Amino acid sequence: MPQGPIPVRRLLFLVGFMGSGKSTVGRLLAGRLGWTFEDVDDEIERLQGRTINQIFAEQGEAHFRALERERLEDIAARAADAPAVVALGGGTVAQPANLDLLRAAGGVTVWLECPLEELRRRCRGMNNRPLFRDPASFEQLYRRRLPYYQQADFRVDADRRDPNDVVEEILRCNVF
Ligand code: S3P
Q1: Does any ligand 1 atom lie closer than 6 A to the CB of residue 33?
Q2: 89 alpha carbon to ligand 1 midpoint, in Å?
Q3: What does each of the 176 residues of the chain score in pLDDT, given as a tens digit?
Q4: Ligand 1 centroid to residue 16 C-alpha, Å
Q5: For residue 72, what are the β-bridge partners?
Q6: Whole-number Cα distances in Å, 85 to 10, 114, 119
Q7: Which of 64, 72, 74, 85 has the least C-beta neighbours within 10 A?
């Protein structure tokens, strides 16, 4: 049987707070690279046949985190699949074991950094984020999350109008 290097799937994970543009930028970036795009939250909703809001309301955040973890394990296990850009949820890397898993899978993490005011502006009026309750708790959560996002391999400024600019900046990082 031919022996060769163990294949490692090329995986680029976008991390960042709610509203930082992970899904929008991820889809565009995957298009530019010719890679597939996976959105962890969309995948959870599709497999569950219900929204993130419903999952939180019916079974709580801990259950959502378990579903999120399952998705990451699935992504990590598919070494033979096409390379992918993966948009994580805003809280994914705030579970330290998740970041370990992404790294063990050979994934590179890119943080879409965006100031609080801009995130607040983008999320205002949205009702599909159970952890976006009021400005004070939004800010508290943002501050609690920062140390986790700062552990990402790369940081790009996502405080831009055009997501295509963010994509260009990521491509300039030469992450692989
Ligand atoms: C969450 C962010 C959401 C989603 C869930 C929990 C969080 O993803 O995963 O509502 O903990 O910050 P987005 O960052 O895509 O909004």
Answers
A1: no
A2: 4
A3: 556 766 678 999 999 999 999 999 999 999 999 999 999 999 999 999 999 999 999 999 999 999 999 999 999 999 889 999 999 999 999 999 999 999 999 999 999 999 999 999 999 888 888 898 888 999 999 999 999 999 999 999 999 789 999 999 999 998 87
A4: 9
A5: none
A6: 9, 20, 22
A7: 74
